[in-house]
Amino acid sequence: MNPVVSQDVAVESGPMVTRPLKPVEIEVIDQFVQYSRALGQPRSVAEIYGLLFLSPKPLAMDDFTERLQLSKGSASQGLKFLRDLGAVRMIYVAGDRRAHYEAVAQLRKLVSSFLEKQFLPHIAEGETRLERLAASLESLPPAEREHVARRIALLRSWTANGRRILPVLLKLMGS
Amino acid sequence: MNPVVSQDVAVESGPMVTRPLKPVEIEVIDQFVQYSRALGQPRSVAEIYGLLFLSPKPLAMDDFTERLQLSKGSASQGLKFLRDLGAVRMIYVAGDRRAHYEAVAQLRKLVSSFLEKQFLPHIAEGETRLERLAASLESLPPAEREHVARRIALLRSWTANGRRILPVLLKLMGS
DNA sequence: CGTTCGGTTCATTTTTTATTGAACATAATA
DNA sequence: TATTATGTTCAATAAAAAATGAACCGAACG
User: Fold this and answer.
1) Ranges of chain A whose pLDDT falls below 50
2) pLDDT at A58
3) Å from A54 (CA) to D26 (C1')?
4) What is the pTM (predicted TM-score) of this model?
5) Interfacial B residues in 84-123 facing A (CB < 8 Å)
6) Are residues A36 and A46 in contact, defined by beta-carbon separation less than 8 angstroms?
């Protein structure tokens, strides 16, 4: 509750925020939040990435919990997610025990690892499943059998298509 | 509750299903359900599309509520969603008052309308917003200003990229 | 060592999203 | 025109997902 970025105009009697977000930050973060919704990703993750995206220097967990008003748990989990995705890179800062992060601001990298993490597993699993299925069609009445077989073949062609297109898509996306 | 397609092995003492799903149907529907999760779409919609995808003949609402154990409301809303998406086509069946549907089984069509409905709006909105923002950077301290300006330019290039790539992607996807 | 700091985990709570079902509309039928 | 069949809408409910925060772990510091 009390998301830092929202449509609401004012946060009434809210908690003291040491370094409140600047208008630019709010706008850009909200932009990332929009995209995250379209992609079915949690808002906190988008907020973290957005703040980092605009920051000229690496940030540590405290920065996220303070400025975005997130719990330690959310920040930790969100950063883990972004690390696993390769959307964020850990940075060593001399004389500071804390882990620091910077955004990996390469569309290609973001898209590719997102697709790899989010879709390839499903596609792979679907492929083996459909192979199995295509084999076990004898048990259907002949009338249906042919139609169903065609549909399954079609579905398989879709996943094949996906695999074929992915690399081209990434190439098209430049650096 | 009581989803027709699930990992569970048995539905114990469940309600009488007149025309229970065949194993092939369960598998294929579950496949669509998997994809729908990755895309952040409700399971009921995937179930409807999956059942229709395999059906050799057009189906009416009753078929969905009966065979998938959905409420009338869900079936109605799910079909509306699929209609709006162009994933489903209405079919007139002589001597039957009910509306019948058949699946539009063209990957290209599905992907294109999904992206159009789900992403283009966000992209468009983001573009105008970022234009506005780029203009109002004077209020930032000069040190930050340059970096932020670069980031915003980058973000804009991303959306431009998206627009450029979309048609190519669709072309690559064949019919 | 013992203490503090930075961070992770995970059971609980909160928030969001999807589903239900009853009330309502509308069109075909008799 | 009354009746029934078909479908939609939407407030209430259920289910799923995300956020919280306290307990915990381990490494650095003194």
Assistant:
1) 1-15
2) 98
3) 32
4) 0.90
5) 105, 107, 118-119, 122
6) yes
